[in-house]
Amino acid sequence: MRLILRNLGFYLLAFWASLTLNFVLPRFMPGDPVSRMFAQAQGTMQPDQIAQLRKLFGLDHRPLWEQYLSYIKSVFTGDLGISITRFPTPVTDVIGSQIGWTLLLGGVALVIAAVLGNLLGIVAAWRRGGVLDSAFPPLLIFVGSFPYFWLAMGALYLFGVSLGWFPMRHAYDVGLTPGFNGEFLSNVATHLVLPALTIVLVSIGGWMLGMRNTMIATAAEDYITMAEAKGLSPSRIMFRYAARNALLPSVTNFGMALGFVVGGALLTEVVFAYPGIGYQLLMAVQGLDYPLMQGIFLTITAAVLIANFLVDLVYVRLDPRVRVR
Amino acid sequence: MAPSIAPRRLRPALRAVTATAAAALVLSACTGGSGAAGAGDTSGNQLLTIPREDLATFTRNFNPLSPQAAPMTLQAVYEPLAVHSMADAKDTPWLATKWEQAKDGKSLTFTLRDGVKWSDGQALTADDVVYTFELQKKVLGGFDYLDKVTAVDAHTVKFSFNKAFSTAFYEISGHYILPKHIWSKVKDPAKFTNPNPVGTGPYTKIEKFQSQSYELRKNPDYWQPDKQQIAGIQMLAFSGNDSANVAFTNGEVDWTQSFIPDIEKSFVAKDKKHNHYWFPATGAMINWQLNTTKAPFNDPAARKALSMAVDRDQITKVAMNGYAEPADCTGLAHTYDKWRDTSLAASCTWTKYDTDAAAKALDAAGYKESGGKRKLKNGKDFTLDISVGSASSDWISVANIIKQDLAKVGITATVKTPDWSAVSSSYNTGTFDTGIVWSNNGATPYEYYRGVMSTKMVQPVGKQATEDYHRFGDKKADKLIDAFAAATDERTQREQTNGLQELYNKDAPVVPLFTGPEWGAYTDARFTGWPTEENPYATLGNRNGSTILVLTSLKPVKS
User: Are A98 and A71 in the same domain?
Assistant: First the structure.
């Protein structure tokens, strides 16, 4: 319990530090949202509109410390302000309407990649030098080292344009009404296949290699030899004895990755026109939309910290050594 | 050491897993693949499908006062008094049937069309027009010259100015008109999202609004029902050019204005009969802007010599894919061909590419070459930065070509490509060296010359400028610009424009490069009646003032 409390203290400190960074960093960027918008309009906007737009967006000219205090206050009251790039939608609405898709895509891809990758790693290490062990890691690393954009466009072209197996864009068909029914859910699932598949393809190699390497180290331990000598079944030794211990680093990685899922898969969203936080963040940065930028950064920070905290808890449960510090 | 025992019991399990996975893939493949729903639909009820490559998701905000209004708010829902087309420079009467300019240029009177109704059935009156401009001034400002807007009678509106300002016609006639009976009840018009808009446009009914698509259906009370030939418009959201272009070249959308590289091969060749594009030179003049607060850019001779070193043909051919038109020494984009002083344009010297002449001109102006390097008057090396936003790959190529050209006359240029926000902030405050910059693009050359030559637009370095980033002004130009704005007849305006062209040719306030093209491509498999080079009633842009002309000209293909 004391350990958890101490951890909690660290997390709160980290949260405050990142809140402050969130506040400071965007303000170091040159320019302001309105002149940015003006530059983008390239001659179609009237110059005298600029001052009015500044007024409309309520751009702050108060001293920094005052802005900082009201920012901290608004974070804890859940009021993140109004987005500029999607004016006049509140930031919480922008994030709320898209985070579901981000979590779905990122979560599904992460779980598939982690589970499959770890399984492959376990099996590859167990049968070292076998077909799986010699063919898969180089192949997966090869695929994973493709520029993601190229891979995704390739998959889109092959399975979407040429073969027509999967839909090419969006989270569900145009004109379909969202709802919890079979038709809608299966439509969402088919739209998920290509984007998730490409993310899995590029990330699975890392999971497999990581697992394989710790697994090899674990398999060399004396207690494995002991278990073999006792005549236990190979699969029992492999999963219950070796894999269980080799899994610890993977748990940490999974927790970290889970936190970053919230940030969205930017390139995936761009290629497959999938709704999500990633592209929104890009637009916010390009449009110098401070409120939205801060809102998204805050969500990501909170998610990473929470995921890490949970991993810490799980770790205490999984690895008794952590408890005695 | 590796465990050598093969887990034989695992094999069937693995096999089962792979089999299920494969089955799942095949299954989902059967249910999927309905992507191309709109393709080939020629029932007569097909929707005109338009992609937005710059919006990953839509917000249900049809408030034209909002800078982030949903697409088509200003094209299909609300309408202006008159429609100006950049393609043929014509003004088409729209909500107003005629207009008259006062002799002194200090007022403008519009006569509204009879029988125009809002989509809720109420009639359009002069009060709506008066209210719209009052609201616009209150919420967004602008229109400083506008003294008073009065409803003379139910069908006549008079705009009075505080000075003679005839070019106001384009700003006023092109402005959208809002219904007073709706907007006067809105508490905070700036933040109102107007989810179910009431407008006079042909397509005002919002249906099936979702974050990545929505439909606009017919306005039942439209004033020219014979021109509502298409059943409706469907907007689709994309998060980038690539995904939008895939849908377009695949025949799933009808009309796009996003940039398609190598369009002949990637689009037209796929279906020569139906796929077309047209990139008229109706955009703004793209200038190489030199910061005239810095030496040597404050010297017109240096500016002209630098201009001579630039190969505009190569820039338009290579960097702009052959889609742009090179500039001449009047600085006028091709949009303003009818204003061009052709005899002056024929005698241009400093916009003709000639490396030797450029080197001689630099020598003559006191920028001598020594040891292969051009020197400034203070003896330092002649070097300069060219800044362009990192997102504009075509303009970065333009800057690189300029860099190579300058090297031939001994000048070292550095192309700097930070994010556009950093670049534009250096333009605003005047801290940049040189840059590739767009110019104002209005119906007459007035906006262009005001933006590059008027002393009234010049801000001191450090203070925010919104035009004339290069900070050049000429009192003589001011007089001509003001006289142009005050003149009510085209003959006088032409005289002032000729004077401005002469001054421009003398001063070289900026280095004009090329007229920006307006991208536009379409497939006529499902709709016909598009504007073309032979019938240029509008441009193929789907976000400008002439878009309404396209929407009311298209006819669905029926099979």
Answer: no
